[in-house]
Design brief:
244 residues; alpha/beta; Carbamate kinase; nine-stranded mixed sheet; two-stranded antiparallel sheet; 9 helices
Length: 244
């Protein structure tokens, strides 16, 4: 454990948490499991109480996956826009859970829909963070052909986050898929180039390259373990760190 963790001081001041849409499903096959959303909200509330400024980018794969629809013949741009709208649904669900936990939250969208969320304005989003509000970035980058991983990297740069926290179903990056290969071993740390060269499916290549160009670290950890976000921000040896 680092001295910062021992002193009960977070090692990161501002973080961007990247969640897949599937993270909200729990054990369901589709949609949003309210119990899972409440647990995520409680974990985020926990790091907010430590003074960590928190932004969130969430996917939409639990509702609609643009790439899969495109593979079945739908126009790719149309499918991607539908996926972006799915992320807004997830963002609103998470906002509701956070506000019920007592956390002031703003959903900010790349596609303008003022009746349900604020349009993305970089300086306003940063001001929300400075005031202690959680900011949920929805609708990806607002452009087709870009994933929510790339949106997470882009927004993290724009708000000058210290790190991207990538919540997954496993406790880090492995040499192979640990669900399929029992001999797979976990990396404690790995470089951006190694992730790209070994084609490890952590985030897509565009997102990894963007983080590499701007030297933004990524911590991949098991989102399903309660309290894991707090462990990461406290500098405990959790998950896998991707860096220089």
């Amino acid at each position: 454990m680092s001295s910062d963790a021992a002193n009960n001081t977070p090692v990161y001041k501002r973080v961007l948490l990247k969640l897949s849409g599937e993270a909200l499903m729990g054990d369901q096959q589709f949609g949003v499991d309210p119990k899972v959303v409440v647990r995520i909200a409680e974990d985020v509330h926990g790091i907010q109480r430590l003074g960590v400024e928190t932004a969130i980018v969430i996917g939409g794969g639990n509702i609609f996956r643009g790439l899969a629809a495109s593979a079945r013949g739908m126009d790719r741009a149309t499918a991607d826009y539908m996926g972006m709208l799915a992320t807004v649904i997830n963002g609103l669900a998470l906002q509701d859970a956070l506000e019920q936990a007592g956390v002031l939250t703003r959903v900010v969208t790349a596609i303008e829909m003022r009746a349900v969320a604020e349009p993305f304005i970089r300086r306003r989003a940063i001001r929300h963070l400075e005031k202690g509000r959680v900011v949920i970035f929805a609708a990806g980058t607002g452009n087709p052909y870009f994933t929510t991983d790339t949106a997470a990297a882009l927004r993290a740069m724009e708000i000058k986050a210290d790190v991207i926290l990538k919540g997954t179903k496993v406790d880090g990056i492995y040499t192979a898929d640990p669900m399929l290969d029992k001999t797979a071993t976990k990396y404690d740390s790995i470089s951006y180039l190694q992730v790209l060269e070994r084609q490890l499916r952590v985030m897509d290549a565009t997102a990894i390259s963007l983080c590499m160009d701007n030297k933004l670290p990524i911590v991949v950890f098991n989102m399903r373990a309660a309290g894991s976000i707090r462990q990461v921000v406290m500098g405990e040896p959790v998950g896998t760190t991707v860096g220089v």
